[in-house]
């Protein structure tokens, strides 16, 4: 599916979009300076908005995607292990981790959404807005996947990273259309 990829706007463009949406110049400057808003495409959304959370989740999934864990990080077994009469050399691989682990390198869709939600809560003092937006986002996503739970949809053996990106882009467009 071809779709518009959200693009981050400059601070001046962000301020202009916020003012066009009815915000005062002082409020727009303050909000953009506080890093509590992620402005993408032609519409400005606060960091707690479902569009902002899904945009962040999409960034994470595009940088690295996984299944069967919310997130994965690099794991290095630096100690040789004795197996029978032989020593095995150090090995590298990945291991499951929390989505907000700074060492995470890949996220499932539900893990990416969880991290985006956590980041939104860190930036917004009113958690109920973030939680409400999370519920709206999950509903919008599940409507696109025949009401299946996101975790099971993501972990389907036939699923690919491209499928996840396509779903995110479709829902982002739907959220943009709903904001107009």
Report what the structure shows:
This protein has seven helices and seven strands, in the order ααββαβββββαααα. By secondary structure, it is α+β, with helices and mostly antiparallel strands. It has one domain (11-63, 106-179). Strands 6-3-7 form a three-stranded antiparallel beta sheet. A two-stranded antiparallel ribbon has the order 1-2. A two-stranded antiparallel sheet has the order 4-5. A hairpin with a 2-residue loop joins strand 1 and strand 2 (43-46). The chain starts with 10 loop residues before the first helix and ends with a helix. Residues 1-6 have low confidence and may be disordered.
What descriptors fit this protein?
3-stranded antiparallel sheet; alpha+beta; 7 helices; two-stranded antiparallel ribbon; 180 residues
Give the helix/strand layout:
Blueprint: H1 11-20, H2 25-33, E1 37-40, E2 43-46, H3 50-63, E3 71-77, E4 81-83, E5 86-88, E6 91-97, E7 104-107, H4 109-123, H5 127-144, H6 150-155, H7 161-179
Antiparallel strand pairs: 1-2, 3-6, 3-7, 4-5
Physical arrangement of strands within the biggest beta sheet: 6-3-7
Instruction: List segments where confidence is low: pLDDT < 50 over at least 5 consecutive residues.
Output: 1-6
Average per-residue pLDDT, rounded, comes to 81
What is the straight-line distance between the termini? 22 Å
Beta-strand level of the residues, as a percent range?
15-25%
Order of helices and strands: HHEEHEEEEEHHHH
Q: Structural class from helices and strands? A: alpha+beta
Shape summary: elongated
Number of domains: 1
Tally of contiguous helical segments: 7
Radius of gyration: 19 Å
Helicity level: 40-55%
Topology, number of strands:
7
The major β-sheet equals: 3 strands, antiparallel
């Amino acid at each position: 599916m071809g779709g518009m990829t959200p693009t981050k706007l400059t601070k001046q463009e962000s301020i202009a979009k916020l003012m066009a949406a009815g915000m005062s110049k002082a409020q727009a400057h303050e909000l953009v300076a506080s890093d509590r808003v992620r402005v993408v495409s032609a519409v400005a959304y606060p960091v707690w908005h479902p569009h902002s959370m899904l945009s962040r989740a999409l960034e994470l999934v595009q940088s690295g995607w996984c299944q069967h864990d919310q997130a994965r990080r690099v794991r290095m077994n630096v100690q040789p292990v004795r197996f029978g009469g032989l020593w095995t050399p150090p090995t590298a691989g990945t291991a499951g981790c929390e989505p907000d682990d700074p060492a995470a390198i890949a996220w499932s869709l539900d893990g990416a959404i969880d991290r985006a939600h956590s980041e939104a809560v860190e930036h917004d003092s009113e958690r109920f807005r973030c939680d409400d937006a999370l519920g709206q986002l999950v509903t919008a996503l599940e409507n696109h996947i025949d009401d299946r739970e996101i975790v099971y949809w993501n972990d389907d053996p036939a699923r690919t990273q491209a499928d996840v990106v396509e779903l995110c882009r479709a829902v982002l467009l739907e959220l943009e259309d709903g904001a107009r």
